[in-house]
Structure to design on (77 residues):
């Protein structure tokens, strides 16, 4: 099981990155993002998608250790 887990993780990550690359190449149309009263400059959809995935991965990498620490401390009580 210890060997399958890293291989499966890499496989899932590779499929996800491939999907992002395919969608990025197919969607080169520039769009602007509107949030409340703010509006961004014209950026290709692929760049926005890649940026969103990167932010999500970073956010998840930060939150997973925090969640594991909280669950370990609640089990000890």
């Amino acid at each position: 099981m210890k060997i399958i887990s890293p291989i499966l993780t890499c496989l899932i990550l590779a499929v996800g990155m491939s999907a992002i690359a395919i969608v990025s190449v197919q969607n080169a149309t520039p769009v602007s993002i509107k949030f409340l009263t703010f509006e961004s400059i014209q950026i290709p959809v692929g760049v926005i998608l890649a940026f969103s995935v990167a932010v999500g991965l970073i956010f998840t990498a930060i939150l997973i250790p925090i969640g594991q620490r909280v669950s370990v401390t609640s089990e000890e009580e």
Notes: The chain is about 70% helix and 10% strand.
